[in-house]
Amino acid sequence: MIIHLSKDITEKEKSALLAKLQELNIKSNLVSTQFRNYIVGIASDDFDIRTIGNLSGIDDIHRVSDNYKMVSRKWKVNNTIIDLGDHVKIGDKELSIMAGPCSIEGEKQIENTVQHLLENNIKIMRGGVFKPRSSPYTFRGYGIDILKLFYKHCSANGIKVITEVMQVSQVEEMIDYVDIFQVGARNSQNFNLLDILGKVDKPVLLKRGISGTIEELLSSAEYIFANGNEKIILCERGIRTFERAYRNTLDLNAVPILKDKSHLPVIVDPSHGIGIRKHVKTMALSAVMSGADGIIVEVHHNPEMALSDGHQSLYHQQASIMYEQLRLTRKFMTENL
Amino acid sequence: MIIHLSKDITEKEKSALLAKLQELNIKSNLVSTQFRNYIVGIASDDFDIRTIGNLSGIDDIHRVSDNYKMVSRKWKVNNTIIDLGDHVKIGDKELSIMAGPCSIEGEKQIENTVQHLLENNIKIMRGGVFKPRSSPYTFRGYGIDILKLFYKHCSANGIKVITEVMQVSQVEEMIDYVDIFQVGARNSQNFNLLDILGKVDKPVLLKRGISGTIEELLSSAEYIFANGNEKIILCERGIRTFERAYRNTLDLNAVPILKDKSHLPVIVDPSHGIGIRKHVKTMALSAVMSGADGIIVEVHHNPEMALSDGHQSLYHQQASIMYEQLRLTRKFMTENL
Amino acid sequence: MIIHLSKDITEKEKSALLAKLQELNIKSNLVSTQFRNYIVGIASDDFDIRTIGNLSGIDDIHRVSDNYKMVSRKWKVNNTIIDLGDHVKIGDKELSIMAGPCSIEGEKQIENTVQHLLENNIKIMRGGVFKPRSSPYTFRGYGIDILKLFYKHCSANGIKVITEVMQVSQVEEMIDYVDIFQVGARNSQNFNLLDILGKVDKPVLLKRGISGTIEELLSSAEYIFANGNEKIILCERGIRTFERAYRNTLDLNAVPILKDKSHLPVIVDPSHGIGIRKHVKTMALSAVMSGADGIIVEVHHNPEMALSDGHQSLYHQQASIMYEQLRLTRKFMTENL
Amino acid sequence: MIIHLSKDITEKEKSALLAKLQELNIKSNLVSTQFRNYIVGIASDDFDIRTIGNLSGIDDIHRVSDNYKMVSRKWKVNNTIIDLGDHVKIGDKELSIMAGPCSIEGEKQIENTVQHLLENNIKIMRGGVFKPRSSPYTFRGYGIDILKLFYKHCSANGIKVITEVMQVSQVEEMIDYVDIFQVGARNSQNFNLLDILGKVDKPVLLKRGISGTIEELLSSAEYIFANGNEKIILCERGIRTFERAYRNTLDLNAVPILKDKSHLPVIVDPSHGIGIRKHVKTMALSAVMSGADGIIVEVHHNPEMALSDGHQSLYHQQASIMYEQLRLTRKFMTENL
Question: How many interface pairs between C and D have CB atoms less than 8 angstroms apart?
Fold first, then answer.
């Protein structure tokens, strides 16, 4: 059960409401986000919401039978649109494209990529500065200093920055230099990190776990929302299966299912989702057709020299063709399907 | 290594060739299909094909490094097109749509479905008469008699029949009443059945195993080809994973990969691939966008009364809209991507 | 619901019973095995079995809520013991060991193996004559002729033969030369084959499917029982997962669960279950500790020269040590746990 | 390649060595643990270690072809034994048993459990104070205060404490109140947390990821070692598969494989590994038979009232019987196998 508190609810009314809920043996969680205040009540299935509906200080009450509550579409029918400023929105009519290298490797690379994005009218640049790597002896990213450089070039050109955050202490360090925090597949159930990201007013792109279920993805998103941040973007990036012909199994079933179950925008990562350069465009197009709100994709001005994931990064020229086709496809869908 | 024998190779030339191969310690397999004769030679990787290239009776020689040979695109660059007659082709420019109920349940149902297909210009009707069911106490299909009825109505209306064959002895019994034999996921590695289907001149639609790899699917197809039947259609229908929000994980990565590795046409089954009626259309459209040559889909004039799979069968009216959109999408792709 | 019919039930009583069931809207399946006659009734959960309990011709009635019925322990509390004659039993107190090569390769090999089994007091020899292979160009077994030789040597030495049957037509051909039919993982849901094996009076060892669930294994066993054969042995042989450090994931959880859910004996195949020779003994011992009634294991007098699965076959000397340890472990368990 | 530096290596010798390695184009990582100093060099496969073998300041050089280096058995043949003090060791001849509730729920529960452990001569108590939970609205543990109480009771009774750490900032807060840090399955690739745990001198029990591979588990252990902590315990706790008859698939194949590939001790968690109380003992015994150095198991004085995982927690009386049988089994193995 989700109770929307009135903007002008008095402390006295709030106390009365909480007391009433306690009396009814309903566990209450106060959720205060950048937009408004809610109470999430965990009630039994046969609870009659009219019992409390007439209390003052309440705007609305919704029954939500899912285990996740705030991220469910059961109470919020309209799509959540995330506004990054400068007319950049995610979840809106326009397809969102986030492109850039796996890792930020240097100023030259940043400049090259920014130039490529400007030419293609791409508004969001991806690039890792903290890299989760299975071996401690491999490249783990250039860290906070290069992030500042990355952000400087992007903001100077009206481009938004998305980059991965890996631990609680990095959030504060990074916050002035990111427009979207990315949570990687390996941190999809790092609940302490999710808690902190719920306490900042920056959008969070949350990747599905390596073998995470759709329910787990939504529950992790719920952590962020319950801590106070409504600006959440879900990301399907492929799951681990037995198949060895490609890197991960991109689960496009997840797109219509997530759009059905949740009001949050859904982005697809075809680069990790198949892991083979020549097939990335096809899977990106398929993702758009499955209803994704956008694509996050690895591109590199010189993939052969990339410090990581070069084999799945698109050449800039390839990518330009892909962006064009993705937009055409979205337009086709809007007009015809 | 694949050796194409000349149409007019003499027995003497053939013997000389086989002797030469034996001398070179190459294991030879004679493959005689409805179209031509080949020898599949299993040679070491560093074998120099020029060693035998000048023997007489040979049209061409190709090195194929895959474990599967005849179904590989490494020797046959052009797509295989399967001609069912009456201008019905699979793997051609036009999208193939196969639609019909999970099970053939009676004459009335057949008539209803045929009518629906005619109205929508669908040329291939699906429908099971032998049903693989995990419990022996459930409905297992109405068998050969209803197949005859099914075929009678379809052929009278210019519609081709595709239906599942489950065991060797059924092949002969069914052959006059089917246009395409379907091999189900559970029989994907029933090698004796594949052997027999390689000896008939009817197309075979081969489904990927429940947790079958792409390599295994192609190896199973190789069985059919090696026994003499080149008319093979590959079918992606979802794999088993841990995800419980839907029935199977439709693996659209498999489509570009299969099209890349093999010259055979690829069909996608969105009905089993997601198993939820309201999402079937979305996954069918995504499958087309991923490069599938066609779709096989469950429709029913009255899904609530279906003897099996009613929950994933489309209503006829829903399906009509879907066919239209699938064709529009294919047209869009041809003209724009 | 399972109804045990009296041995001396009259046709009239049977008709009355079936009529009564039909009247009660219960779907009835007559199951006649080598031991007795049953009716499996598919009733709603709240059916009161006393409604029919007083009809004549009935010995007993059991409610079974599982989807599988005859193989459930819910009606038969005692373990099924399968008697192969000559004091060889499976599911009894003594641990069953089945050993032999992957494929029967020749008379010399048969003699070597028989000698090894005699020295170790092993009563059941395994060995394939029809081999399921993913490629049509690899060795597929020496067939029925070598089976006859295999059986001749074994029966002359009091050793029972277990070998894989792959298709319906082989059952009749093989029946005089096998003591246990083996159904491989790839045929675990070949329902037509299971039907036929239910109609013969020979034990069947049924392997779990490559990604088969425990429920599916029991449902496949139900097919055999429902067709009339109570002599079924379940076999855990590892499932397909993403792990690449070994061949299959041996699922020993399945052993206590199968023993809990079913009255049938459970055998474990550690050779396929891990696929690495040096670890086979450890997994065989663990399987015994998990409660398995026996082990089926690949041994070869010369694994380096084996036509298949040599890398996971034990040397005879290794195997002798293993047998001894398996028996000691079983004795330890009986006396101490 | 692993280079053991001499205890008395001079700074000059070290510089010369590093310079030589750089000259040879070998990437060097200095690893300083609580026991000694190493250099991990990432060299090409055909590097001849004699090239540097004669430099001064070096005790030994080992070639290690695995991706993980320090945790590999390729350079350290003997088992690592972890000494917790007070004669409590892990990886030694004696079986290690860690038992206790899922969550620490209060002083009464702690006292009850300590009493139970004392009666059964169990030296290590498990119990969570920070709980990873998929929903933000469920119980997440009583935190640092109850940990202090937990530790007070245990240390007063000579019992060691193992508890889960979930984030970097908790390490310092917890370090005086834990004897073993536990890293849960969801944090198995939380590389920042692993880094920090490598910098403290406390043993770390590292659980395999929910769908983590054996290679990934060892690579995560490598993080801890490479940061300076040699005291690592590996833990198999079941992987996620499609099977629904139990909670996770306990992968006992992993035990002999981990023991073969690494010198680190291996512990098995049968509680999460099967998730059904009545089968926990069987899987614990099987784990011991598979070669595990110990068991970590959930017990509760009143499972029906447990705040989490009650259904898989053993009653104290059940557990006492299990401990006895586990020890008997280990003794049987030592004397007979």
Answer: 126
